[in-house]
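Quick one:
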Amino acid sequence: MDILYLFPMYIACVALAWPVFGYCAALLGSVILLAPWTIQLASRAAGLRLSRNSKARRDIILINAKREEDDHHEKEHVLPKLEDLDSVEVDDHPGGVAPNGGTAPKDWEGIVGFLHPFCNAGGGGERVLWAAIKATQKRWPRAICVVYTGDHDATKSTILERVKHRFNIQLHPPTVVFMYLRTRDWVLSTTWPHFTLLGQSLGSLIMAYDAFSLVVPDIFIDTMGYSFTLALSNYLFPKIPTGAYVHYPTISTDMLSSLGADIGKGVNAGTGKGLKGFAKRQYWKAYAFLYGQSGRNVDVVMTNSSWTQAHIQSLWGLKRTKKRKPHAVEVVYPPVAVEEIEDKVHLEGPKAVQRQKALLYVAQFRPEKNHDLILRSFAKMAHSPERPAEASDARLVLIGSVRDSKDEKMVYQLRLLAHELKIEDCVQFICDASWDEVLDWLGKSWVGVNGMWNEHFGIGVVEYQAAGLICVVNDSGGPKADIVDVDGEATGTLSQGVLWNVFLLRSLHFVLALLDICNIG
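Output:
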C-alpha cells in the first residue's frame, strides 16, 4: 500500500486520540504536583496509626517503671536518687524540649527514645549512649529512657551490669527500658553485599518503623548514625523533637578522595580506579546527596569532634539553614574518664606506676581500626636491625570488645597474622576487658597507638594521654584535629600509614631511654 494513503489515516488516528493524550498528560501532571502532599498525608496517617497502636504498650511501660521505682525504693531503703559519677557532667540549668521548641520542666515524665541497635557492643559509641542516658536521668529523673536494641541475647540486668563493668557508669534501672527490635538484620552489611551504604540506609527505615511500632517516644534520638530514621520520624511525627549524635559521617569528601589513594586511607583505598571505580564514585556522590537531605530536618545535631562537625556542616548545614533550624551543629566531645584515670594512674610520687616495655592499642576489633597495620608495623620494628638489644622483650597489647562471630573471626585472623609475622610470643590479645583491666594496662604501658584512618574522635587516645603514655596515632580525623595537634602544639606523634614502623621504633628508642634514666627494666 502506498504511504500517501496511510498518511490521512495517521492524521485521523492522532485527532481521535489527542483528547486521551491530553487527559493522561493532565493526570500525570496532577499526580506529580500533588505527590508531596499525598506522601505527607499518608505519612501523618501512618504516624497516627502507630501512636494509637502503641499507646497500650506505652501505658504499660509507665506503670511498670513506677512499680519498679517503688520496689527499688523499698529495697534500698533510701530516697531514689542517682549516683553522681565524675565521668558524666551535666549542667544544672533546665533544658530539653517537650512540645517541639518548648522547655521541659524538671519533673517531666515523658519517654526519650534512643535508637542504638547494638547497645551491648561495649565501644566508644556505647559509652556515649550510656552517658547520654545518665545525663537524661539527672536532668529528668521521672523520664523513661527507652533503648531500641537488637541484642535479644541480653537481658536488661546483664546489659546494665556490663555498662557498669565496662564503663563504670551506674544507671538508675527503673527508668531504663529496652525495646527489642526484630529487624536489626536489615542494617547489617552482610545483608547488603552490593550498594551497602544505600541498602543499610533503606534498611534503617524498616528498623525505625519497627521501633515506632513498639512505642512512639516523646523525643527521638539517634546515637548510631542512622540519619534516615530521623527523616522518617519527621514525616510520621512532625511534632516530635529529634536529635542526632553523629560519631562519623556515613559519607564524606575524605571517603571520595580515598577512592584514588593507594594505601593508608581506609578500607576503600584504591577502589576508585577503572570503569567500576568510576561507577562507584558516581554512586557515592548520589548517596551523599540523599544523606544530605536526611539531615535537614533534625532539630538538634551534635558531633563528637571538630573533624566530624566540618563534614556534617558541609553535608547538612546549608539545608538546615534553609529549613531555619535554630540550633547550629555543635561539637560535644565524648565522655572520657580522665579524672578517674588520673586518680588511679599516679605518674609521680611514691605511688607512681611501674611501666613496662609495652605498646598498647585500645580499640574495638573491627576492620577500620587497622589492627593488621599495627601488627605489621610492630613486626618490622621487632625484626629491624636498628632495634636495640634492650627492646627484645617489648610487647604489643591489643585490647578491644568483640560484638559477634564476625569480630571473633577477625581476632582469629589477627592471631594467625601475628604467627605468620613471627611475633606471636610478644603480642597479647585481650577481648572484652573490664574497665579495671583497661586501667591496669594504661598504667603499665609506655606507648599508646591508634592506627585508624580518620578516627571519629579517639577516646582511647585521650585515655592514653591521661595515663601519661606516649601517643602514636594516624595523621587524620579527630586525633589530628582535636587531641594530638591542639592550637599548633603537639601532644603526641602523628604518623602516615607507611611510616608506622619508623615512628614505633622512634617511640621505643625514647621509651628505652626513659627506662634507662629511671633504672627500670
